[in-house]
Structure formats: C-alpha cells, structure tokens
Specification:
There is one protein chain. About 60% of the residues lie in helices and about 10% in strands. It has 11 helices and 9 strands.
Length: about 400
C-alpha cells in the first residue's frame, strides 16, 4: 500500500488551515462589515466540520505515522464535498472561491497515485457542475466598496492569491522533500554497493589467508633450518625474519577467527589509553623504524571500551599510511562524554591535489606498489561503528587523518 510522507501530510494540514481561515474571514467581512445576509449557521457548520477534520489530520500527522494514499484521498474528498456545500449556500459557481476546487487536485496530482487523482477529478467536476445549476444566490450589495460585481472581482483576486500561495508552498515543499529523498536513496545505493565490495573483499581475504598459511609454515621451517647452520651475525637477521613470519601467521589466524564477527569473542573492556598503547606497541613491532607519539586527553579517567579487531586494523592502516610518508607519526586522542576523536598526523609531502577528491575509493592510491584499500577499508569500518573519517592537509605540512567515533559504539 502506497503511503505519503508525514511531512507532506502535515504541510497539507497547514495549507488547509490557510484556506479555511480565508473563507471564514471572507464570511465575517461580508456579514459583519458589509451587512450582507448570509447563511451564517450553515457556513459555520461546514467550516467547523472541515476544521475538525483538519485537527484530526494534524493529530495523526504529528504522531509521525505516514498516512496511506486512501487516508489522504479521503481527506481531499471531504475538502471537495465541504467546498461544494459551502458554495451551494453562498452563490454557487459565481462565488470567487470556486477556484479553490483546483487545490485538492494540485495536491492529489503531486502525491497520490493516478487512480486516486482520477477519482478526485471526477468528484471536483461533479461538485462544480452541481453548483452551476443548484445554489442559493448571494444577496446583492450596493455600498462604499462598489456593487456586487466589484466585490466579485475583489473575491476573485483574493481566491487567486490564496490558491497561488497554497500551490506554490506545497509544490516547493514537496520538491524539497523529493530532493532530500533522492539524496538519501543515492546514499543508500552507495552504502549497498560498498557493502557488496566489502563482502567480496572479505571472501577474497579469507581465501587468501587460507592460501598463505601453507607457504608461511614452509618459510618458518626453512628459516629454522638456515638458523641452525648460520653464523652469529646471520642469525640476527634470520631471527628478525622469523619474528616477522610469526607475526604474519598471528595476523592471519586472528583474522580467520573474527571473520564475519567484527569483534572478537570474549573481548573484555579496556581503558581507551591502555588499548591504544597496546595497539601502538604491537604496530611498532612491524614498523620498528617508525616512531609514534601517543597523547591522550579528556575529562576524568579514559573511557572503557571493548576491543574491536576491525577498528584496530583500521587504525593500523592509517598509521601505516602515515609511517610511509614520514618516520615520525603523531597519534592524539581526545574524548568527552559522547565522542572520541583520534587524529593521526604525519610530516610527509601531503596528498597530491589530483588524488584528494578520490581518496577513499577502492584501488585509489598514491603510493608506489600500494593496493589502494587501506583508507577505503578504514572508512568502511569507522562508518559501520557510526563514526566518520576525514583526511585533510595538516597545518605545517603533511596529512591529518581524523577519526570521530561515538563513545557508545566503542563501549557497547
């Protein structure tokens, strides 16, 4: 069943209020100021009934529920019936407010299905046709404002102003709503595409991990055999090579363990500074030539977080990019009661201007031999946790990667 957005339904309530207020003001002006004999009881009953219907529609729209097309069609049909009754007692089709018949059709044509619009069009034609042949004529007026014809022209001007304002306001608001919805749909399509790419990369990574386990085991055996018959100075290099091989095996094992889970099973809570210190120490084992200066600041004790393996990998990827640009890397962390802000800064040459607009897209890289997946995967992980990643030039030269994460996502 098709629905109408609650904002469009609420806007219709406001516009209907303008139309009813204008009709009521015209009746009061004609009867109270001009002294015309009008059926005030029937006019009050009709406008009051429409105002009550409008109040119920306002209450329904304020709840945030999206009304169905049938609900809105019923409201517009009641508007048409009410206007027909009003015109019947107030001059029929000669009443300047007869042009208000077009307002329900303008609304229907923009938000309702074609079948509903066709039904309302039939109702409008029937209502207008009825008040052409059956109506109570308005009393003639001769006074300071001219005769009845002059009042008719003034009423035509007023009804045109009301119709123009209502239609313009509704269509403009609807167009803005449609643009917002299109932008949201485009973002959802981009997110879905990114999810498909990540799923493909995840499957590829799992397969690669399985394939690499065998050659890494073979390399470990060969290094052990070479160490047994090598000189002392060679053993130092072989020991380092063995450590790196073991490190690779640990990474592959850990990745296979948490594949599809995001957070490791049984992960306990750690202080944010403790977790970051362990992350930096582990990362520097693979990049001993680099130096990371870690600084943490915030009100009170560092918040407790649950170690997230994918977030650890994302931060390590940002540290890798910074270390590729300069040996010295700064990792500064600040927090408050709601957000944790992490900044990874380097002192390298910065981001090439032609690369900056596409940075973060898959397979886009400025490094020789790079895969172009580090920033892409890091951004995907951070956005999955409800945060955002911003990469910009650093004041004084270099690049600044700024990670903003909601504290609730880290502590959940």
């Amino acid at each position: 069943m098709s629905t109408v957005s609650s904002s469009s339904a609420l806007l219709l309530v406001h516009l209907r209020s303008v139309a009813l207020a204008t009709q009521a003001a015209a009746v009061l002006l004609a009867a109270g100021v001009l002294g015309m004999q009008l059926p005030l009881a029937m006019d009050g009953l009709i406008l009051g009934a429409l105002a009550l219907m409008n109040a119920l529609a306002w209450w329904y729209a304020r709840r945030g529920d999206e009304p169905s097309a049938w609900v809105l069609t019923t409201q517009l049909a009641l508007d048409i019936v009410g206007l027909t009754a009003f015109l019947y007692f107030n001059g029929g089709y000669a009443n300047p407010f007869a042009s208000l018949f077009l307002l329900p059709l303008a609304v229907a044509a923009t938000v309702l299905p074609m079948s509903h619009t066709a039904g309302l069009t039939t109702l409008v034609v029937a209502g207008y046709s009825l008040v052409m042949f059956a109506y109570r004529p308005l009393p003639h007026y001769h006074g300071s404002l001219g005769d009845s014809f002059d009042l008719h022209l003034l009423g035509m001007w007023l009804s045109l102003v009301v119709a123009a304002v209502v239609i313009a306001a509704f269509v403009a608001r609807l167009a803005a709503t449609l643009r917002t919805r299109e932008a949201h749909l485009a973002q959802l399509r981009e997110t879905a595409l990114r999810g498909e790419q990540l799923a493909a990369l995840g499957a590829l990574a799992a397969g690669t991990a399985h394939e690499l386990s065998t050659p890494l085991s073979t390399m470990a055996v060969l290094v052990g055999e070479l160490r047994a018959g090598s000189a002392v100075d060679q053993r130092i290099d072989l020991d380092m090579l063995s450590q790196q091989i073991e490190r690779c095996r640990e990474v592959l094992t850990r990745n296979l363990t948490v594949t599809g889970q995001g957070r490791a099973e049984g992960a306990g809570r750690l202080g944010l500074k403790t977790w970051l210190t362990a992350l930096v120490d582990t990362w520097q084992q693979t990049r001993p030539q680099s130096h990371v200066h870690l600084s943490c600041a915030g009100p009170g004790e560092p918040p407790q977080v649950v170690a997230d393996e994918t977030l650890r990998q994302a931060l390590c990827s940002l540290l890798d990019n910074a270390a590729d640009a300069s040996r010295a890397v700064d990792l500064s962390v600040r927090w408050d009661g709601q957000v944790v802000l992490m900044e990874v800064a380097d002192r390298g040459p910065g981001i090439p201007s032609e690369l900056a607009p596409r940075l973060g897209q898959p397979f886009v890289t400025g490094k020789q031999g790079g895969l172009g997946l580090g920033v892409y995967l890091a951004r995907a992980v951070i956005e999955r946790l409800g945060g955002c990643l911003l990469i910009a030039p650093r004041n004084g030269g270099g690049t600044l990667a700024q990670v903003s994460l909601p504290l609730a996502a880290l502590a959940a």
